[in-house]
Amino acid sequence: MRCLFLFSILALVGCEGEVRGGPLGPSGSVQCEGGRCRDVPAPASRVPRLSHRQWENATQQILQLPAPSGLSAAFLDDATTGVFDNNGAELSVGGVLWGDYQRAAEALATQVTDDPAALARIVPDDLPTDSERARAFIRHIGLRAHRRPLTTEQEDAYLVLFTTGPTHEPDLEPFVAGVRVVLMAMLQSPHFLYRVELSDELSGGRIPLDDYEIASRLSFALWNTMPDEELLDAAASGELSEPERLDEQVDRMLLDDRATEMVVRFHDQLLDTRSYADIDRTGFDAWDPELPASMMAEPGHFVRAVFGEGGGLRALLTSPYTYADERLARVYGQTVSGDAFVRIDLDPSQRAGLLTQSGFLARNAVATATDPIHRGVFINHRFICAQLPAPPNDIPPIPPPDGVRRTLRDRIDRHTGPGTCGARCHGTMINPIGFAYEHYDPLGVWRAEDNELPVDASAQYAFEDDPIAYDNAVQLAGVLAQQTVVHNCYSRHWLSYLYGRRTTGADDILVRRIGASSQEEDLDLRSLIAALVTSDAFLARTDIELEDLMEAP
Amino acid sequence: MKKIGRRGFLIGLGGATVALPFLPSLAPRVARAAEDRPRFAAFVRAGNGIAQEWEAGSEPERFWPRTPGPLTEAVLRDENGDRAVSELARFAPRLNIVRGIDRPFSTPSCGHAESIPQCLTGARVTEGDGNNPQALGQSADWRIAQQLHPGKDPHTVMAGPGSAYIAEALSWRGPSDRNPAERSPATAYMRFMGLERMPPEVQQRIIARQNSVNDLVREQLDTLRNDRRLGSLDRRRLNTHFEAIRDMELNLLSCELDPGLVTDIMSVSDPEGNDVRPQVVRHHMSLIAFAFSCDAVRAATLQIGEGNDQTQYEIDGVRQQRFHWISHRIESDGSDGTAIPNADLIHHRIDRLQLQMFGHLLDQLMAYESPYGGPLLDDCAACWINDLGNGPPHGGRRVPWLIAGNAAGCLRTGQYVDVDAQPVNKMLNTVLTAVGCTSGDGAPVEDFGDPGLEGGRIDALVGA
User: Fold this and answer.
1) DSSP string covering A437-465, please?
2) Quick check: B325 and B319 in contact, CB under 8 A?
């Protein structure tokens, strides 16, 4: 079914895309040759570093640990600039993080070599001599740590280190001592900490990745971890360079629970659910100190359901149900017993999808009032990808109440709406989105009145050409779900997340193609993701390096 | 006063990993020639500006002393008790209060996001909001570390949430190379000290083993970073990694943290939480003083709160609104919101709280004894800064600089000076030179920061 889909989204644009002109193509590009068009990859780092979560997952997998070690919790957090945590080009290793890596590698190597059962899982036992076992162990773990077979030089270097084991660990059995010290080294190796891509042979104007590079790209994109045995085997046999075999692997991976968790993690970062921890609405009837934790968990449960049921962006934006525990259900005026999250149907005239969930609404509110500005800004940024300038400095504060009973909307409109100096951004972009959510109080509870006056949640927004009117957030959700710019925005975020880099103009055609299919065909999430990771933009490199991108006019 | 501890610690050049019993064969930190005397710089940053009179008729002055001149405890306590700086009265003889420092460059996009990167760099900043603005120069803490303590990174910490719209932006390893800040004092402490106690022979084996591993990893990294296929940006990142790989060496740290404090530090379960923020600030400060006392680092930065500090501080037992809203005087991060009654007064109280916290750092530095006699504070330039001048409108003029300690006599102290619109790079030149940095020819640092700025130091602060 996905292959049919892939055909259809290619057909939407066909070869009418912009043929590569300048170094990057001014607004995205495809290359056509012999009747076949390919997406042109954008510049990307050759050594993106693993995120801390990826380190955690990969070490668990290499060492076949029953659970993540949790050691990365003590790693120095990365200072990132974008929406997602996996932009490998901006993740670096300074002195502090190097020390963290070193300590964690030592702890893991010690843990495994102190436990005979754990050691047995990673060390071959069917060879007659320790020397042969050592070499086999190094090849076996090296393949997984480097995510490709070791070179002869690398293998020899690890063997030399292995022989020093008894000197460094005289209290251990010599073979175990060698294993320990080699594990320490492999887990600090740059070939483990970075996803190294050194392919450089141009073919048809692009640099096809080799099979091991593809395997790593796929596994870190779809599972947030290293390739599993089947993927490594596929890479070894060259299958990943064959489109049909590649599709089979992608389909297999997208049915794995790790893909589901990847999709949840994407949406958690897109919505910034981590920030919900700071919500405090003491004094509100439905408030509970444990509610922020429930709010943080809610989108994940909902996304799992949509993903599992084959939904796409439309379902994420418009579905009138959610998952709630006892605390969260009170926000929605319903009753649920206990801490377990259960699916509850919501009033379809009041709720629709992710953006009427309580966490988003409460996060973008203040202690005693809603915050239409921040609700509007967030959706403009994250769901419309609108280019809003930062607020200018030195804005005079909104005038104090003038004695006339007004809604907050009325007060904001007077200060920033049409006819004021704030009209350009607020009046036409921020307020019309934010006002649609005025039916939800600072905790996200539905309300009919603000300041004892009827709520007016109607507005209009010009997504592309003529303004589109809506009465409230539910109608706005339906409008958003129909907009090409919204689907393009969502696809752009997915590209950034799956590719582990910022998007550029060179991605525009691919983004628009996926976005159009999402919008016109109600593309399900699996197909959207599959389309992105089977694109030539994912499977190849450009011969332009990152600094060339930065220096391009 | 805290004396030399009973145990030494085994440290790598990047920080300690394991503790070891006292080894008498290893030299403790001892007094050296004056020119080698280690000096230390701490930079504590508060956000959202201070409650000061901005222009005639604006909010009343609540921060600066009334008149420039010599500072005594009585001057600050009795004549300026209504000003926030009176919180530091007990340090008056060792204090410089400097008014008139300006942020060098405008902030066309976002006052917070584009101001913090300028604080310690004096460099231009790329435009943008959130975490996008990049300082186009190195920060003073890195300059100190690289010139005076090669191989030992500066200590970079923050008391604030893990992720934020504007997160850490004080410490820059180099242009567009932001240094992440550790949030957890417990983790920072463990990095310094490690927790294992082993016999010396075991420690020696650990050193040998780690250095063997380092040799292999270093070789792999060297091959990779020199691969012709890599672009310069990738190579730069790998160079940073390569330089971070440091062989362990035996280095006795003549210090030990109070076990009770260690217990306190380790007991904070959510160091990013709002309600423990002042406690976390104090713990970080205790660790900075501790690290200085060990000569484990020469420079440290502590950022309090995110760029637009959203901490809800407690004043008189009452949890206040978010500090950023208070600094805007309304319940909003923007310009629209309900007015917060007495917001300027609450801002002043938060200024006092910030300086009380800074006082904790100074108390700690006073409590350690310098190997050269007197308190460790006398070997320091401990700086309290704010990246903005005031609440509304978050201007870049008169950003406060308070410096405690005379950096081994290299700074005059006990004075309140108004330098009248000097760019921050001059203050950075002053501090860098005071703690021992020099320009290429051994002369005082006069040109730190953006080359387009007027160079020089703040003459009123330069010691004999």
Assistant:
1) TTTB-TTS-B-SEETTEE----EEE-SSS
2) no
Question: CB–CB of A408/A370 below 8 Å?
Answer: yes
**Average pLDDT score over chain B:** 88
Q: In chain B, which among 243-302 make CB contacts under 8 A with chain A? A: 243-246, 274
Tokens of A297: 């968990």
Those residues whose C-beta lies under 8 Å from the C-beta of residue B262, and which sit 6 or more positions away, are B189
Cα angle, residue B407 at apex, residues B420 and B258 outer, rounded to 5°: 120
Q: Which residue has the tokens 């020199």?
A: B226
Instruction: Calculate how close chain B gets to A96, using CA atoms only, in Å.
Output: 7
> Which of A96, A164, A396 has its CB closest to that of B191?
A96
Asked, for residue A456, whether it belongs to a domain, the answer is yes
Mean pLDDT of A24-49: 72
pLDDT tens-place string over residues B269-283:
889 999 999 999 999
- CB contacts under 8 A, B 227-246 vs A, are 227, 229-234, 237-238, 240-241, 243-246
How distant is the Cα of B128 from the closest Cα of chain A, in angstroms? 7
Domain that holds residue A86: 52-193
The CATH topology of domain B40-184+276-461 is: Alkaline Phosphatase, subunit A (3.40.720)
Q: How many domains is chain A partitioned into structurally? A: 2
Burial of A305 (0-12, 13-18, 19+ CB in 10 A): middle
| Residues A547, B205: C-beta atoms closer than 8 Å | no
Q: Which of B12, B216, B244 sits opposite A161 (nearest CB)?
A: B216
Total H helices, total E strands in chain B:
11, 15
Sign for the CA dihedral angle at B359, B364, B368, B372 comes to negative
Residues A188 and A266 in one domain: no
A49 contacts in B (CB within 8 Å)?
237
Nearest Cβ partner for B153 among A95, A196, A371: A95
Residues of A in contact with B177 (CB under 8 A): 92
Q: Give the separation between CA A80 and CA B170, rounded to whole angstroms.
A: 14
A152 and A61, same domain (yes or no): yes
Contact assessment for residue B381 and residue B426, using Cβ atoms and an 8 Å cutoff: no
Taking the Cβ of residue B401 and every Cβ of chain A, the question of whether any pair is shorter than 8 Å is answered with no
The pTM for the full model equals: 0.88
Q: For residue B183, list chain A residues with Cβ-Cβ distance below 8 A.
A: 77
A103: number of Cβ within 10 Å: 18
Residue A21 lies in a domain: no
User: Given CB atoms, is B307 within the 8 Å cutoff of chain A?
Assistant: no
Q: Which of A481, A509, A539 is the endpoint of a domain?
A: A481
| B 143-182 residues with CB < 8 A to A | 152-153, 156, 161-163, 167-168, 173, 177-182
What does each of the 464 residues of chain B score in pLDDT, given as a tens digit? 564 333 333 333 333 333 333 322 223 344 555 567 999 999 999 999 999 998 888 899 999 999 999 999 999 999 999 999 999 999 999 999 999 999 999 887 778 888 999 999 999 999 877 888 999 999 999 999 999 999 889 999 999 998 788 899 999 999 999 999 999 999 999 888 753 456 777 778 888 999 999 999 999 999 999 999 999 999 999 999 999 998 766 554 556 788 999 999 999 988 999 999 999 999 999 999 999 998 989 999 999 999 999 999 999 999 999 999 999 998 877 776 778 999 999 999 999 999 999 999 999 999 999 999 999 999 999 999 999 999 888 889 999 999 999 999 999 999 999 999 999 999 999 999 999 999 988 999 999 999 999 999 999 999 86
**Residue A530, in any domain of the structure:** no
Chain A residue numbers with beta carbons less than 8 Å from the beta carbon of B337 are: 366, 369, 397-398
Q: Which of B216, B238, B298 to mutate to test the interface with A (most CBs of A within 10 A)?
A: B216
| Domain residue ranges in chain B | 1-30+200-267, 40-184+276-461
By Cβ distance, the residue of B14, B329, B393 closest to A95 is B14
